[in-house]
Structure formats: C-alpha cells, structure tokens
Design brief:
Helices cover 42% and strands 13% of the residues. With 225 residues, it is an alpha+beta fold.
C-alpha cells in the first residue's frame, strides 16, 4: 500500500502542502551551510530568469571566465519561476515543509524531483555517504479551501518558532512580517487577507492566536502522517 499522501492528484493552478523527512527520520540539515544550500537551490529554481539577458552577458568580452561559468550553469539549470509559486516554507533539522501553487499539472513533480535529487547529491558528497537521503517520495496534500491555505502558513511558520526570538530553523516568516522580501517567496496572496494598519488584524497577531491554531491543527493534521 502506498504511503499516505504519496499518491497525489496533480491539478493545474492548485495549491499543495509538500513535506518530507530524512530516511529513518535522520537529520538532513546538520549545520547552517546545509540550510543555506537548500535555500539557495529554492532561490535559483524560483527566481525569475531572463535567459536572453544572461546570454548577452555571456557574449561580452569583459565578462570573466568565472562569471561565464556561473551564467552557463544558470542557463542550463531548470527554472520554475513561471510554474511554481512558493507561499511559505520552513526547514527543520530532519524534515521540511513547502506551501506552493503550481501552474501546470506536472510542475510540482518536476520541481521536487530536481530539488530533492540535487540536495541529496550535495549532502551525500559532503558527508561521504551513499543511498537515499529522504524517506521515499515527497508527500503532498491538495489544499482546496482558502481558509486552510491561510492557517497552514501559520502552522508552517510556527514550526520554526521565530516570533519574538532568533530561531535556528529557517522559514518564510520574515517575508510575512516585512523584515525581508524577494522575488522567489510570494506572501502577498496570503497577506491580502490581513490589515497593515490595525495591529489586531495583522499577520503577526494571527500568528499569536495559539488557541485557534490548535483547533486548525486538530482538523488538518489528522489528514497527514
């Protein structure tokens, strides 16, 4: 029998909660560099890429050999900026959570295969190991309700426990609180439901409503393993 949420209905323009953990629940991020590398892969895959501009840079005489090598890698690399919208993420020591929307029916599968394969190769080379790093195929839950989508961002951010303290686990909470912004993390669709001026109706206030978070957890997370 297939593992829960490993068999996924792929639907165009649909939102999914994606998660996976290390094989045998092993740690998959051992230090800050591991977190940084995984995030750099997300950034490279999801940042808008102007390949015509990159090719122009490649043809310029003043472009150094080192810069040319970097440009060639970018041109050849898979890019999912037009196919995958990343709403939220958090990276824990032995697992990760991503909340995404895909444009085409096969975008998530291609994206996750590239991301997990690439990170596994990095990890195995760094730590001189062989074999699978993740516990089978990534899991995905199709999020059909808008209220679940909003509450799920809070659960993901709560995992990292970054409100009011410096947390070791990276997440997208800083993009929701206005501390940071980028072209590859896109919180605006979620933040549109919150106030920018009324403190009681801000996203930060929403994060602090632990009683309502527990109620959502009981409903939603009974569905996942």
């Amino acid at each position: 029998m297939a593992a829960k949420n490993s068999v996924k209905p792929y639907i165009e323009n649909a939102c999914y909660h994606i998660y996976n953990r290390g094989v045998e629940k092993r740690v998959i991020f051992l230090d800050k560099q591991d977190y940084a590398v995984f995030l750099s892969y997300l950034k490279e895959y999801l940042s808008p890429q102007d390949k015509d501009e990159l090719r122009q840079q490649l043809s310029k005489i003043e472009t150094s050999p080192k810069e040319k090598d970097k440009i060639i890698k970018l041109v050849r690399m898979n890019n999912f900026a037009g196919e995958i919208t990343l709403y939220a993420f958090c990276l824990m020591s032995n697992h990760f959570h991503l909340l995404v929307k895909q444009a085409s029916a096969d975008a998530i599968d291609k994206f996750m295969n590239s991301l997990c394969t690439r990170y596994s190769m990095y990890f195995n080379k760094k730590y001189n190991r062989v074999g699978p790093l993740f516990q089978g195929v990534y899991k995905a839950v199709h999020i059909k309700r808008q209220d679940y989508l909003i509450y799920l961002t809070r659960y993901i951010h709560y995992q990292a426990r970054q409100i009011g303290k410096n947390a070791a686990h990276p997440s997208s909470i800083e993009y929701y609180l206005g501390i940071n912004n980028s072209a590859w993390v896109k919180p605006n669709d979620i933040l549109a439901y919150f106030s920018k001026t009324n403190h009681n109706l801000t996203y930060k206030a929403f994060m602090e409503q632990t009683d309502r978070r527990k109620s959502f957890d009981e409903i939603y997370f009974a569905r996942i393993d």
